[in-house]
């Protein structure tokens, strides 16, 4: 594990736990609201124009993108907890150097040190692929 002292690790674990609770709540709300919206759509089954259909489709796509982002956030948090359990948290998956505490405070699910992350983003930006 990185050279984090017990207080730093505890703060980061608490932050991850809080972030997880927030995301779980957001996913729950998103799913509950999507169900309500479906029921509202069924009740308002009057034929609409193509603009109404387009707006509904755009909103559904937006909601799905937001839900995907929230679920990915939960996966990232679970992966961070697994790295903590395995003693790998705070160690860059590329260069195996410590990830700075300041970076982990800003981004507690970070898998890479700032240098490796910047290198990866530049590599994918040139290749035209999304950053992972």
What would you call the shape? flat
Number of helical stretches of at least 4 residues? 4
Biggest beta-sheet profile:
none
Radius of gyration: 20 Å
Structure summary, number of beta strands: 0
How many domains would you count in the coordinates? 1
Low-confidence stretches: none
CATH superfamily: DksA, coiled-coil domain
Question: What can you tell me about this protein's structure?
Answer:
The protein is flat. Helix 1 runs antiparallel to helix 2. The protein has 132 residues and is mainly α. It has helices at residues 6-43, 50-85, 101-106, 114-127. It has a single domain, classed as Four Helix Bundle (Hemerythrin (Met), subunit A) (Up-down Bundle). The mean pLDDT is 84. Helices cover 71% and strands 0% of the residues.
Short description:
The protein is built from four helices and no strands. With 132 residues, it is mostly helical.
Name the descriptors.
132 residues; mainly alpha; Four Helix Bundle (Hemerythrin (Met), subunit A); 4 helices; flat
What's the layout of helices and strands?
Layout: H1 6-43, H2 50-85, H3 101-106, H4 114-127
Helix pairs in contact: 1-2
């Amino acid at each position: 594990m990185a050279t984090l002292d017990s207080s730093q690790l505890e703060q980061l674990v608490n932050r991850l736990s809080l972030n997880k609770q927030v995301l779980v709540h957001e996913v729950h709300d998103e799913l509950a609201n999507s169900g309500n919206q479906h029921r509202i759509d069924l009740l308002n089954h009057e034929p609409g124009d193509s603009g109404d259909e387009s707006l509904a489709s755009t909103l559904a796509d937006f909601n799905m993108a937001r839900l995907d982002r929230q679920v990915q956030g939960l996966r990232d948090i679970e992966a961070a907890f697994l790295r903590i359990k395995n003693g790998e948290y705070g160690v860059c998956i590329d260069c195996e150097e410590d990830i700075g505490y300041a970076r982990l405070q800003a981004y507690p699910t970070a898998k890479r040190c700032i240098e490796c992350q910047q290198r990866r983003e530049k590599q994918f930006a040139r290749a035209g692929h999304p950053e992972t």
